[in-house]
Amino acid sequence: MSTGNSSADVVIVGGGPAGRALATRCIARQLAVVIVDPHPRRVWTPTYSAWADELPSWLPDEVIASRIQRPSVWAEEQKTLDRAYCVLNTSSLQLFLSDTSAQFRALTARTLSPNSVVCTDGTQLTGSVVVDARGTDLTVTTAQQTAFGVIVDRALTAPILGGGEAWFMDWRRDNGTSDADTPSFLYAVPLDDERVLLEETCLVGRPALGLRELEARLRTRLHNRGCEVPEDAPVERVRFAVEGPKDSSPGDVLRFGGRGGLMHPGTGYSVACSLAEADAVAEAIADGGDPEAALWPRSAKGVAALRRVGLNALLTLDPAEVATFFDRFFDLPVEAQRSYLSDRRDAAATAKVMATLFRTSPWHVRKTLMRAPFLR
């Protein structure tokens, strides 16, 4: 690691997937990059997944650990989705995004401005562009997603998968809950040819369900389906905010990744979007343009506003309405699903999906959806 002050074309604060993806695409355009991260050698452990059509062409196939051609969902009944879904190989992704000429600085940023970063030890780093890619912050007021999962041998999961490839969402109530309880769903995906992640997930809450509650629900669900998990099975614990900071960027510092609003607030997905948007931002920086404008054209701002309404709807749905809501959503054509889940630059398409979902929902769900635009 280097010491002392330094300068570069781009200084990126935050060395997670979003920050390193942007660094990779900047370096591909011969830009000098410094990444500021207090723990640059920390091994990534989360499971990252994406719809296959979201991933950019520059990402090698080696970072895909498993590909599910037709995942299943169960809301009010089982449905099979005609859209390929991928689980990424986290270690391969980290290695690929770290195999660059970026200069890593094991420092903690204290203050950021559009062209400089001052670290807690007094080190100052300057750049033509400073990017804040430190992810979202957990606070008592931010909506969060939580999950508790176990990783088991594929041979044990036959009674869970029921002959399907994976459960993208399984909202059935065999996890020991009633219609009056805050719902959670089973997420069950193969990590590779030998292992499967079985995870009880609270999609979003303010506050979200606690990990102990999710663990209890998962173990109840698996027991009820005849899957006994070994005591030494690896576990995964998940808690993160699905909303970025509500304040404006300090001094108009460019934000990217989850911190920059690229997380879908209704799903918690951000890595694929960050990978896909890295080229547009890097190109704008290399060409001397406005990276903020490249990342946030008017249509993208419109989609973000509509997604916030969708988040409000999820937060206010009665527990008994959640399965109905998702049953109607996954009844939509796959192109409509893709528009809402993945397309952040077509506000008209997003609005059309939301209008269709409203029109096809039962009246008791519509009443909740009508309140969503007015919530904060």
From TrEMBL:
UniProt keyword list: Carotenoid biosynthesis, NAD
Top-rank taxon: Bacteria
Family: Belongs to the lycopene cyclase family.
Entries under PANTHER family matching the protein: OS02G0190600 PROTEIN, PTHR39757
Protein name according to UniProt: Lycopene cyclase family protein
Organismal lineage: Bacteria, Bacillati, Actinomycetota, Actinomycetes, Mycobacteriales
